[in-house]
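pipeline: protein-struct stage 2 | run 1193 | Major facilitator superfamily muropeptide transporter
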Amino acid sequence: MLGIASGFPWVLIGSALTAWLQEAGETRSTIGLFGVVFTMYSINMLWSPLVDTVRIPWLTQRLGQRRSWLVVCQLIIAAACFCLGSVDVTQQLWSVALLALIIAIASATQDIAIDAYRIESFSEHEARLQSAGAAMATAGWWTGYSGLGAIPFFIVGDSQWQWQDAYQVLAALTLLFVIRTLQMKEPLATQVRAHLVPPSTTNKAAWRAILINLVHWLKNHIYAPVAEFFQRSGWKVALSLLLFILLFKIGEAFLGKMSIVFYKEVGFSNEQIGFYSKLVTWWITIVFSILGSLVNLRAGIVKGLFIGGLAMAASNLLFAWIAVIGPKEYAYAIAVLIDGFTSAWSTVAFVAFISLLCNRAFTATQYALLASLGNLGRTLLSSYSGFVIDGLGGDWTLFFIITALMVLPSLLLLFCIRKTLYALEQAHYQKSQYDG
């Protein structure tokens, strides 16, 4: 359920909002810029210590550290969603943007609490169950994003309901997460945790201690992992790796940001979008993530990235094909099926690749920083996808060809440093054989 609660807000500020803005007559450039709010998910590590240490007055004592943060975040999301259902996007665009930003911040903060709750729900001797918890969280996320994400498209559909009505329903669904959170038990690990209470403004010593702790935290959790990564890899290889992470899924992000706009402009209905882009993609992603992991296990992580990157680029050309032939449902089904497969495959390879780069002494921090770099690059750069299609005069065929070509620079970088990566992969393999 927490995984569903994590994926659901992406519908509120992503696909549903995109479709609503498109129907309201907003430009592609404006719709694309709304993607900037997703950067909150990339930088939420900056305020993650607050979720660990700050007590929420009245609530923490009754619910515990994790559940109190979850309830507050979910209530904020529900309230902002309800407000979205009360505005006129054509007259109050800045209000819509502010509410979307509020949802993004609350949702990104909720993700911190959810990850902490999941990890602390298992004791040390139940460490093997962490993988099962992660699998359930992933399946839940896609259920919230794709499964529940189909609801607003079916609500609007051909009925008399408007997008404002759909957002009222979505707000009510968010309140169900609050009810479920109140029914859960607080993990024992957080019940004995030492908490920080915000000091009074007159207590200078307390504020000084907080500042010192912040500097110490930044040094140990940001500077040290970054410095170790560059020292271990060398500046040339390290920069190539970071640039690869930044660029690898840019084309997919450009396509994803404009996909709903494209579907509606080419002539697909809300019901078709809800069925294929949400319900079908939901199951395709879960199934092919497992199959993709098996293929990458056989081929190796580096080869898996090459294969996944080329397949991902080729799948983008299917959308160029749809732009040529028009709203043919069979073409839509083929494109969604193949794109879901290649996207899941490349994502599995990409996550494994980032994991391969992490030093065991800084696993969590280095993984979070590298993943955040990839997410931040995709969200910021893809926000300009609307400007690109507008600059092309609405030529969707050329746009999708360009998104297919966007993966080539990252694969060229990967080819240049392949020997280093093969050696690293082989070293990990030999160590795992020895440990086994």
